[in-house]
Write a structure and sequence with these properties.
single chain; two-stranded antiparallel sheet; 65% helix; elongated; Four Helix Bundle (Hemerythrin (Met), subunit A); mainly alpha; 2 strands; 186 residues; 8 helices
Length: 186
């Protein structure tokens, strides 16, 4: 199909609809790519020093969840923030438990399964027992763990819990605290 626009001087010119659409599609893709890059490096997001995380795959997961959690916070998606910060905390603890596996698997509270299959509550208990996180962190982490479980609709129905700004703030605070503990005990 051809379009005949009228130019300001009264002349007309012919354009191919397919050509215009192809150009617009490419332009929109370039804009989206630029915006995605801008959001990922946005100055409103905080970068954490994650040099204490040894496993590159777990570090990537942790960085992604931390970054996405901050963007969800900006969008006021509180439940997403709690779930993502809980996941980031779990990645950080799992990395350290795997590094300290010889001590971790013989801890009294260690489950009888591969550490990579431990639940967050198990990682927390063993982490406190072997001294890689502070005992007070267990209390704080348990609240984050309960709210993080809102990812399961049945848990949300049964518990009546709902995540708000306060719970989202708590997720970030606990993550920073865990990072502090784990980097100190590196």
């Amino acid at each position: 199909m051809l379009i005949e626009p009228q130019l300001s001087d009264g002349r007309s010119d012919w354009f191919s609809t397919q050509g215009v659409l192809a150009y617009m599609t490419a332009a929109v893709a370039r804009i989206e790519a630029a915006l995605e890059g801008a959001v990922r490096s946005s100055p409103v997001t905080e970068r954490l020093d994650l040099s204490f995380v040894h496993d590159p795959a777990l570090r990537d997961i942790l960085e992604r969840d931390w970054d996405e959690g901050q963007r969800a916070y900006i969008a006021q998606c509180w439940k997403c923030v709690v779930i993502l910060t809980g996941g980031a905390i779990e990645a950080a603890l799992l990395d350290r438990i795997l590094k300290e596996q010889a001590r971790a698997v013989i801890a009294r509270s260690a489950p009888k399964k591969e550490p990579s299959k431990w639940e967050l509550s198990e990682l927390i208990r063993v982490g406190v027992e072997i001294g890689i996180i502070e005992p007070l962190a267990e209390t704080l982490l348990d609240a984050v763990r309960q709210y993080r479980n809102l990812v399961h609709p049945g848990v949300e129905l049964r518990s009546g819990l709902s995540a708000g700004k306060l719970e989202a703030d708590s997720g970030f605070t606990v993550m920073r605290s865990i990072c502090r503990d784990l980097s100190r005990n590196n």
